[in-house]
Amino acid sequence: MSAGKFETTNLGWRFQQWQQQTGEWIELKLSQLFPESLPNVPDNSNNFPSWDFSWVVRGIGILLLAGMVGLLGRWLWQWLSGVRLRTIDRRSPSPETQKLAVKAWLERSRQQQQKGNYRVACRCLYMAMLQQLDDAKIVPDRPSLTDGEYDRLLQENPKNSAYKVLLETHERLYFGRRKATAQTFDRCQQAYREIEGKS
Q1: Which residues contact 109 (CB under 8 A, 6 or more apart)?
Q2: What is the chain's Cα-based Rg?
Q3: Within 10 A of 58 (CB to CB), how many other CB atoms are there?
Q4: 38 pLDDT band (50/70/90 cuts)?
Q5: What SS3 string covers 84-137?
């Protein structure tokens, strides 16, 4: 350090000061709560026991620090999860979610199924269903609609059970983070065929 330059503050020093002040406050409160536990001995006596609450202060400090780290970790995880969910949201611009014709979605689904990527293959069927609903003016595509809202809007539709398969599968795969299998894709494909009237 050059002459004349001194460190004015230090995070470790601040924490130590806070720890000491907290310890003194806890010691004061404990002595007020349990005055009978302190012996009635003159102040200058060597027999007066030393009340050392530094372990309590350290413990509280560690708990508070762990709590803050835990809260920060939870907030960070939620934020990162939110970013991940937004990136796979059907309304966000990405190659997987761009607006395509039903035929193009079905072709993508077939390609992904052949690669064994059943999660994306199911999603493509889901996107084809949404585009089909929009094209047929059954439920116009609105970015704000959730899978649950689509389900409610399709309650009276005769093919409601087929729509429900695709909506629930999409919700489980993308928001419940379930793994897609060949059987998952087969169920979605069968549901989509029922929607098209080809079952």
Answers
A1: 121, 122, 124, 125, 128, 189
A2: 32
A3: 13
A4: low
A5: HHHHHCCCCCCCCCCCCCHHHHHHHHHHHHHCCCHHHHHHHHHHHHHHHHHHCC
Higher-confidence residue of 83 and 21: namely 21
Q: Which residue has the tokens 């509280």?
A: 60
Helix (H) or strand (E) holding 196: helix 182-196
- Separation between Cα atoms, residue 69 and residue 1, nearest integer Å: 32
pLDDT in tens, 77-86: 777 765 544 4
Q: What value does the mean pLDDT of the chain take?
A: 78
Does residue 164 contact residue 151 with C-beta atoms inside 8 Å? yes
What are the tokens at 78?
């939620």
Enter the tokens of residue 141: 């595509």
Helix 160-174 × helix 182-196 angle, to 10°: 150
**Cα separations (Å) of 109 from 1, 56, 102, 168, 197?**
65, 61, 11, 18, 18
What's this model's pTM, rounded to 2 decimal places?
Answer: 0.52
Six token digits for residue 190: 């069968």
